[in-house]
């Protein structure tokens, strides 16, 4: 990889790079739970859920030091048409974060999914470049200094990668090819030179079936971007864990070690557990889930310091898992650290153990 000033800087700053506004620092000292954490813990949050259930905001304010918007910064929500940016929903989440001394991660600028219909009219490389650059410049500049960490590119690798150079089809890839990745990172860096810029991916935690090939292709993209001098500072491991599947301790640990050696930060960005095929007993399921999360966190933290860990939601009541991976027996899913009534599950204790909260 090419070392540049930015890499060296982010390596030195560590987790502090996007942790603390003065407000966050105050909140951390007044909240013993957050103050005790070595690794920042956060959760994704949707505005509709926040508005409809006061328990959700209260739980997040109590347990987390950062949030990520579930959908509010995606093209589908931000861009009703080619000339409009609708920031109201994302701004509401940002005010919630600021009122509670939390920081907000940005998710996501470049993704194959969640694209509004009108983007189908983007049909030439010149139009694509213009649209991509305008979007990133506008969104990143608006939150400059407030969103300290961005998922610049999300899910660039196909589920079944046949070669390490395989990339997932998307509007951007079809029209601009590989070059849109570095373009996105450079544009984001120009709009906010202090922001931590991440490449985010799922299904790189396992060692059988198609998973190693996916990790190899992801690794290939990371190192190609670094070799090209792109301002890629961090890798986000989404970690939508497939319930009870063994974490590939060797393969994942080696990969995370390589990232650290290259000066790249590592975050867990969307942790939850797909429990649709786990046994019905809630007690038994919660134990299996917590054990798997423990294996993941042990593997990743053994390979170097974890920059942050976020779960994709915090309570089983507000999760995408029941929609995407419902159980055949009709029992409610239990993918997250708190149950439907915001009670702490073994998953939460595992997070506490690895983020440094002991009590
Ligand atoms: C999901 C949201 O949770 C849903 O509300 C939405 O309908 C689709 O997207 N990986 C990602 C997230 O990077 O953006 C996805 O979020 C979950 C998988």
Outline:
By secondary structure, the protein is of the alpha/beta class. It is 45% helix and 14% strand.
Strand content: 5-15%
Number of helices: 16
**Heteromolecules bound:** (3S,4R)-3-hydroxy-2-oxopiperidin-4-yl beta-D-xylopyranoside
What is the end-to-end distance? 41 Å
Characterization of the model:
The chain has helices at 5-13, 16-19, 22-30, 32-35, 47-52, 54-63, 75-78, 88-99, 125-142, 171-176, 179-191, 211-227, 249-261, 282-302, 321-324, 346-355, and strands at residues 41-45, 66-69, 103-104, 106-111, 149-154, 196-201, 234-237, 240-242, 265-274, 308-311. The chain has 359 residues and is of the alpha/beta class. Strands 1, 2, 3, 4, 5, 6, 7, 8, 9 and 10 form a 10-stranded parallel beta sheet that branches. The longest helix is centred in the C-terminal third of the chain and has 21 residues, at 282-302. Residues 70-71, 154, 238, 270, 320 line the site of (3S,4R)-3-hydroxy-2-oxopiperidin-4-yl beta-D-xylopyranoside.
List the helices and strands and how they pair.
Elements: H1 5-13, H2 16-19, H3 22-30, H4 32-35, E1 41-45, H5 47-52, H6 54-63, E2 66-69, H7 75-78, H8 88-99, E3 103-104, E4 106-111, H9 125-142, E5 149-154, H10 171-176, H11 179-191, E6 196-201, H12 211-227, E7 234-237, E8 240-242, H13 249-261, E9 265-274, H14 282-302, E10 308-311, H15 321-324, H16 346-355
Parallel strand pairs: 1-2, 1-10, 2-3, 4-5, 5-6, 6-7, 7-9, 8-9, 9-10
Helix pairs in contact: 9-11, 13-14, 14-16
């Amino acid at each position: 990889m090419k070392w540049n000033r930015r890499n060296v800087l982010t390596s030195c700053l560590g987790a502090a790079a996007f942790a603390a506004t003065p407000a966050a620092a105050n909140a951390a000292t007044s909240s013993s739970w957050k103050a005790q954490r070595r690794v920042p813990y956060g959760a994704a949050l949707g505005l509709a859920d926040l508005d409809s259930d006061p328990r959700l905001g209260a739980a997040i304010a109590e347990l987390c030091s950062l949030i990520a918007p579930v959908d509010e910064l995606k093209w589908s929500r931000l861009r009703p048409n080619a000339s409009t940016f609708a920031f109201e929903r994302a701004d509401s989440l940002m005010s919630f974060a600021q009122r509670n001394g939390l920081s907000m991660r940005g998710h996501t600028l470049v993704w194959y999914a969640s694209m509004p219909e009108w983007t189908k009219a983007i049909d030439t490389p010149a139009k694509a470049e213009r649209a991509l650059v305008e979007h990133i410049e506008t969104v990143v500049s608006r939150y400059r200094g407030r969103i300290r960490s961005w998922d610049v590119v999300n899910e660039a690798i196909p589920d079944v990668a046949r070669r390490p150079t395989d990339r997932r089809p998307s509007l951007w890839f079809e029209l601009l090819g590989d070059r849109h990745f570095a373009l996105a990172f450079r544009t984001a860096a120009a709009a906010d030179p202090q922001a931590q810029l991440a490449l985010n991916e799922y299904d790189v935690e396992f060692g059988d079936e198609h998973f190693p090939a996916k990790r190899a292709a992801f690794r290939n993209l990371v190192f190609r971007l670094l070799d090209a001098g792109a301002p890629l500072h961090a890798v986000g491991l989404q970690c939508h864990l497939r319930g009870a599947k063994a974490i590939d301790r060797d393969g994942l640990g080696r990969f995370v070690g390589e990232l650290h050696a290259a000066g790249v930060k590592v975050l867990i960005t969307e942790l939850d557990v797909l429990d649709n095929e786990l046994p019905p007993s809630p007690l038994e399921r919660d134990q299996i889930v917590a054990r798997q999360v423990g294996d993941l966190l042990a593997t990743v933290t053994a390979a170097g310091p974890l920059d942050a860990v976020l779960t994709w939601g915090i309570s089983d009541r507000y999760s995408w898992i029941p929609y995407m991976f419902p159980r055949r027996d009709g029992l409610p899913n239990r993918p997250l650290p708190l149950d439907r009534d915001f009670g702490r599950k073994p998953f939460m204790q595992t997070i506490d153990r690895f983020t440094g909260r002991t009590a």
